[in-house]
Specification:
112 residues; alpha+beta; 3-stranded antiparallel β-sheet; two-stranded antiparallel sheet; 3 helices
Length: 112
């Protein structure tokens, strides 16, 4: 971890995120970089600490995932324009085309 020497590492969790008790932080700040993890197409329910997957398939799941990412970024003072890398994982690669059609709407200019 020598490359982190002298840089502060800050593990970030909003109160809302803490309630769902995930085994990871919603974001980690290292120097001037912000890393997000575990972002999926979940929506919060009326029950505190509970989420459910957006209904309707890969398109609404992708939209919700991107909205979740956008919210986390905004919470910590950033926007989607600050994103430099995304890793997308799909249960069914056949849904790649539909997922990508939604995904690219969130990055009209700079494509991470």
């Amino acid at each position: 971890m020598g490359y982190l020497a002298g840089q502060d590492v800050e593990y970030l969790q909003s109160e809302e995120f803490k309630q769902i008790n995930m085994p990871f932080s919603e974001a980690v700040r290292v120097g001037n970089l912000l890393f997000l993890s575990g972002q999926i197409g979940d929506v919060y329910t009326d029950i505190p600490g509970q989420t459910k997957l957006a209904e309707g398939g890969i398109r609404p799941e992708t939209r919700q995932t991107m909205e979740n990412i956008k919210s986390v970024l905004e919470r910590y003072g950033l926007t989607l324009e600050n994103v430099v890398k995304c890793t997308c994982m799909l249960a069914d690669i056949k849904e790649w085309g539909e997922m990508n059609e939604e995904y690219i709407k969130y990055f009209p200019i700079n494509k991470p």
